[in-house]
């Protein structure tokens, strides 16, 4: 009997509501899978319409166009003689389900609704879909006319599993993160191949968790586990990081890339089912449980995933999964996200206000990394990347070969000096721009600042002063904010017209460079340079960014950064440079302004979001964490100051620039971190509880 099965999974760079593009990428992946001998192809979750459709799932158009694409797939010669497993929304009895549709040779075999919906963090599937709560239950589904005309079928069943001769394959897609993942009972019922069509996004240090969960799923029960995932930016803050994989009996046998510019990536593996059966044979506890399990309904299909004579067919061996370091993840993930955003927005490049500090320097390095990825993809023969690059630079014969040269064409950096800026930061910005090859602009904003303040003085009859010159804290803050907001206005002006002055078409996307810790504390001016089109580092901590800068020095051969200036960037205290210099040197520092360190901010952020700690709980945790360095009264003071400043500034999160999501303690107000933006900033009840505990201690 047949024993060697050839299966395929893929990672596709789908785009929400891009039905034409999504169809092309699905067809391409099926054709590749067939050309490599696969008899079954698994695609990502909701791949037909794109995972990130959000409230567009409510629209009947989304359902209609999804079925239209399905009809095209059924008719395509590429889908013949291979089992195709695709994802799309389906309306059944006026209820929307997140479904898998499995078809073979112009016949739909079954539709399988999702059981466990993702509804935490960035996920809101329960807002648009209903989970299928009828375990092992079969219902009749009536097909739309456009599908009937292709298949000749009027109706068929919604079911759990397909039987292909002697092989049982569940038409199931679920999160391996579920506490009651259905693969356990399915495995006990004889299922040998499990499929997981996923829409899983990137978070720093998350990949190993996903891989471990997939491998552990078959380690204790045996079987073959196939994972498909979306990749790329499909229209919002998330980057789906591929990592398609195939695992057998607890070991990875095929690994896809986590970050790449390839729109279509297909993994094919040949596996021996006898290895699964042998693995399970001596598991007596498993076999006892299997003898008692309630069977799943089956659909019998006259099709085999294996051949009758396959004894000599070579099968895949286990591979060692290579994980990226956090610094590599920062270099690659946001870079791929930027490329997707740039090419899909049809803009001509980026503009970054480059201050010479760690944050803006890290952002510039990410753009440089993107240029590296583009040149590498073109060198490896990727025609899609080449076509996009030519359109972006408006040159049909252009071939990007040198990252610095490509960077010069699509990346503009701008140092906006004021009378409060130091020569050190100016030099840092200039040297880094030269090293990465960006088109660099130096300008001075003093004339614009004086003009705006002059209007105020003329109307109100008083002139504000910095505290260094005898002014109040209100005057000091207002004068800082004027500088910061003028920089934002100028950034957008230069983004719109810089290419025009050089005789080139198009506009530039403005990049922001506020890190996740500053956003959490609210240490930014509303509508300053943190207000941009997108922000590649908005979900990354200051600590990780410092490590990333060191990674760039070592891996991108940024020789200018190896000079003395690097020590300045790495070790100089972060500063906004909005207050007057003292003896020509910067006197203002971020941590002094904030009243807390960046390291403390990271701890506050993780406790607030991940540990779900309010002021009192945070205090209780920190008196133990910091018992060697702080008294309880000092801890109380720090916690109160954080929550007071956090709540005062929370309104800034409502206008936060869309940022790459990379941390689980991100304060993103869009959908990840839902909080009020008008607080009682005295926290009177909570702080009294802290004071009572301090007194007791």
TrEMBL record:
Its EC number is 6.3.5.1. GO terms for molecular function: ATP binding; glutaminase activity; NAD+ synthase (glutamine-hydrolyzing) activity. The keyword Ligase applies. It catalyses: deamido-NAD(+) + L-glutamine + ATP + H2O = L-glutamate + AMP + diphosphate + NAD(+) + H(+). CDD domains: GAT_Gln-NAD-synth, NAD_synthase. It comes from the Eukaryota. GO terms for biological process: NAD+ biosynthetic process. Gene3D superfamilies: Carbon-nitrogen hydrolase, HUPs. Residues 5-273 form the CN hydrolase domain. Keywords: ATP-binding, Ligase, NAD, Nucleotide-binding. Pathway: Cofactor biosynthesis; NAD(+) biosynthesis; NAD(+) from deamido-NAD(+) (L-Gln route): step 1/1. GO terms for cellular component: cytoplasm. Homohexamer. PANTHER family: GLUTAMINE-DEPENDENT NAD(+) SYNTHETASE, NH 3 /GLUTAMINE-DEPENDENT NAD + SYNTHETASE. In the C-terminal section; belongs to the NAD synthetase family. This is Glutamine-dependent NAD(+) synthetase. It comes from Nyctiprogne leucopyga.
